[in-house]
């Protein structure tokens, strides 16, 4: 078996927008280096100052160097059919695969990461960065942060790892069934092995234990592993993978419960890599307030945090349609509800009358009584029910509760008849969560699709 021990220098941290400035490849037969190749590469873009400060490579050095297209065939022939070995292998591999593809070559290699191998075969080190690991193991590095120097040091490290591998760790990692090579360099495979094949919520954490991403899964092991498949070269993905050091999880009885827990956890923790769920908010709400003359007034307005809304809507038109129905049904004033602004008095109702609340003809007490009746009817029409479903284990049941049109909470029980005496006795055993229209719509949609799980309260 032949290995290609690789190191590259680049203009930045992700392949889709950055070029390669230097490549070094050592072909290793499992005992020693049998062939070496190194070249500077003109990336056809300027070298950032901080890259020059780190590597010493500047624009002048690369002016007369070959482009990647010029050397692509030679690089492909060196790497093809070899085991691709590098320190943080997915970084080097993503760059070379991306740029080889742009030159018309499809790189398909098995991979070995010397960071992951070192953690397994030489445990207990304070750091597994190439520089600090080589210092700890007394491996000399000539020309640090240059491709040839780092590739030579990685080759010496790889020799040590081969010597330390008395239990076939490398062979196990190279099996097609092993997912080891696709995992981030700092994530131990044991974190994946302990994940169950159940619904739940997972948490990616950085080196300090800070949660950087929250996700939900129908199958925790399958979903978490899916994050690491493929070799997408964009910056967001590469930065994200380098950040992940740990995975924690919470098992849920159903995928719906996982969705709800995920939504609440993202709002609670605000992880830096969760973007889509952060942007979700229902857009408009129906509010009630008292004006300076004592009239209660309804208004549809943009959603405001920490304000008690009577009803929530996804669009302004949806809110106005709901409010128009209230006006007609309860003979409310369109002007006091902000649906008419130009006329001196509100438009006539179906019976041709204008009751005159907007001009003071209809008294505060009479008008407010009608509006309170409308609000009470809205409240009475809000559903209260429980969704009873599978639990986290065979002898357990899950319960989601909606009370007066708002999501109240969820929990788990072992007695199938725990709701026979109503909701009150079991409320204290439910975990209470924040309700919003996103969560409520999830629950209502699920209840409509699965009426057999519905328990009306």
Automatic annotation (TrEMBL):
GO terms for cellular component: cytosol. Transmembrane segments: none annotated. GO terms for biological process: DNA replication proofreading; nucleotide-excision repair. PROSITE patterns: GIY_YIG (PS50164). One of its GO terms (molecular function) is DNA binding. CDD domains: DEDDh (cd06127), GIY-YIG_UvrC_Cho (cd10434). It comes from the Bacteria. Residues 197-275 form the GIY-YIG domain. InterPro entries: DnaQ (IPR006054), GIY-YIG_endonuc (IPR000305), GIY-YIG_endonuc_sf (IPR035901), GIY-YIG_UvrC_Cho (IPR047296), Ribonucl_H (IPR013520), RNaseH-like_sf (IPR012337), RNaseH_sf (IPR036397). Pfam families: GIY-YIG, RNase_T. DNA polymerase III contains a core (composed of alpha, epsilon and theta chains) that associates with a tau subunit. This core dimerizes to form the POLIII' complex. PolIII' associates with the gamma complex (composed of gamma, delta, delta', psi and chi chains) and with the beta chain to form the complete DNA polymerase III complex. DNA polymerase III is a complex, multichain enzyme responsible for most of the replicative synthesis in bacteria. The epsilon subunit contain the editing function and is a proofreading 3'-5' exonuclease. This is DNA polymerase III subunit epsilon. It comes from Pedobacter miscanthi.
């Amino acid at each position: 078996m032949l290995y290609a021990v690789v190191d590259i220098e680049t203009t930045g941290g992700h392949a889709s927008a950055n070029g390669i400035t230097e490549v070094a490849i050592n072909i290793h037969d499992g005992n020693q280096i049998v062939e070496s190749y190194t070249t500077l590469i003109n990336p056809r873009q300027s070298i950032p100052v901080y890259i020059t400060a780190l590597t010493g490579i500047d624009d002048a050095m690369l002016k007369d160097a070959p482009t990647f297209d010029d050397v692509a065939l030679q690089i492909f022939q060196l790497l093809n059919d070899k085991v691709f070995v590098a320190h943080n292998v997915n970084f080097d591999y993503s760059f070379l695969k991306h740029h080889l593809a742009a030159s018309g070559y499809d790189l398909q290699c098995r991979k070995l990461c010397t960071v992951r191998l070192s953690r397994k075969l030489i445990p207990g080190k304070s750091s597994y960065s190439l520089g600090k690991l080589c210092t700890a193991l007394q491996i000399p590095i000539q020309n640090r942060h240059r491709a040839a120097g780092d590739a030579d040091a990685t080759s010496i490290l790889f020799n040590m790892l081969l010597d330390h591998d008395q239990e076939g760790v490398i062979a196990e990692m190279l099996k097609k069934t092993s997912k080891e090579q696709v995992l981030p360099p700092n994530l131990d495979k044991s974190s994946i092995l302990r994940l169950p094949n159940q619904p739940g919520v997972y948490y990616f954490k950085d080196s300090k234990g800070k949660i950087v991403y929250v996700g939900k899964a129908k199958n925790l092991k399958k979903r978490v592993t899916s994050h690491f498949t493929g070799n997408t070269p964009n910056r967001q993905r590469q930065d994200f993978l380098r950040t992940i050091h740990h995975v924690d999880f919470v098992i849920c009885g159903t995928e719906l419960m996982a969705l709800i827990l995920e939504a609440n956890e993202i709002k609670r923790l605000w992880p830096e890599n969760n973007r889509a769920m952060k942007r979700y908010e229902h857009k408009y709400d129906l509010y009630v307030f008292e004006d300076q003359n004592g009239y209660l007034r309804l208004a549809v307005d943009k959603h405001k945090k920490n304000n008690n809304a009577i009803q929530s809507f996804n669009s302004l038109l949806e809110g106005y349609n709901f409010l128009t129905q209230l006006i007609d049904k309860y003979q409310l004033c369109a002007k006091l509800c902000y649906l008419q602004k130009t006329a001196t008095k509100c438009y006539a109702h179906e019976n041709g009358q204008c009751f005159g609340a907007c001009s003071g003809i209809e008294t505060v007490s009479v008008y407010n009584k009608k509006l309170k009746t409308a609000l009470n009817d809205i409240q009475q029409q809000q559903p209260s029910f429980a969704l009873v479903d599978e639990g986290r284990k065979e002898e357990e049941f899950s319960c989601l509760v909606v009370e007066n049109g708002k999501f109240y909470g969820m929990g788990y029980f072992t007695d199938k008849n725990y709701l026979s005496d109503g909701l009150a006795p079991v409320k204290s055993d439910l975990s209470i969560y924040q309700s919003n229209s996103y969560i409520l719509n999830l629950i209502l949609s699920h209840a409509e699709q699965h009426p057999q799980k519905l328990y009306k309260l």
